[in-house]
Amino acid sequence: MKKLVLGIISFLCWMVLTWTLYLPSLLVGLVVSMFIALWFGDVFVERAKNFFQIKRLAYLLYYIPVFTYYCLLANFDVAYRVLHPALPIEPGIVKVKTTLTNTTAKVALANSITLTPGTLSVEMTDDGYLYVHWIKVRTTDVEEATEMIIRKFEKILKEIFE
């Protein structure tokens, strides 16, 4: 089951990335996806049965536009900072606390932070702290930084992965 789920996800990613229904391309994608699934299936998917729960899939579909929205906002913010004559940046590393317990959820959160312009996940500790490089540090308080940086993603990721 784990390998099947990874194979399906890999093939769907292939289809989205190539954006074609050309048969040779689909066959290459299918072969590569199945190879990945057979080789790495036991490593990447912890609880395969959870993948097919409607509630989790609905939250995943909800997460995509939420992430896209915050990513676009961050793009405009970084563009403003780069184009501003005074270059208003105050970079630094802040500590945030996540309540996520699932490893996959934590990785998804760290990747979401890294993919959002202006922030970069630097380190994740075993006790749930995440160190984030922030282009303009607005606060060094753990709770305030957590609220500003990760809460918008964390609530949805908890529903998807935990």
Automatic annotation (TrEMBL):
It is a multi-pass membrane protein. Keywords: Cell membrane, Membrane, Transmembrane, Transmembrane helix. One of its GO terms (cellular component) is plasma membrane. The keyword Transmembrane applies. This is Na+/H+ antiporter subunit E. Signal peptide: none annotated. It is found in: Cell membrane. The chain crosses the membrane at residues 28-45, 57-76. GO terms for molecular function: monoatomic cation transmembrane transporter activity.
